[in-house]
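Journal club side-thread
Mid-discussion, someone asked how the predicted structure for our own chain would compare to the paper's figures. Pasting it here so we can look after the session.
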Amino acid sequence: MTKIPIASINKKKKIISINEIKDHLENNHKAYVLITCSYPDSEGKMDVELNYSGDEVLASYLAFQAQNSLDPIEEKIKDLC
């Protein structure tokens, strides 16, 4: 199980697991979409994982809106290449 360092308001780091994050999201939000990726391996490959919970239509809407907000960044990257 992967543990993630989270910086709190008092600047102390607390290590929590993905499952703890998902539990918190499920208990405090109507729906969520969580996308994570591992660090690259020696060949540069990363594992990408998508988790969602709650109303499927709302989760789809969240993912769609997230993609829309990232599209301008993708265009800037394409312009640099």
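Post-session note: Helices lie at 18-28, 56-80.
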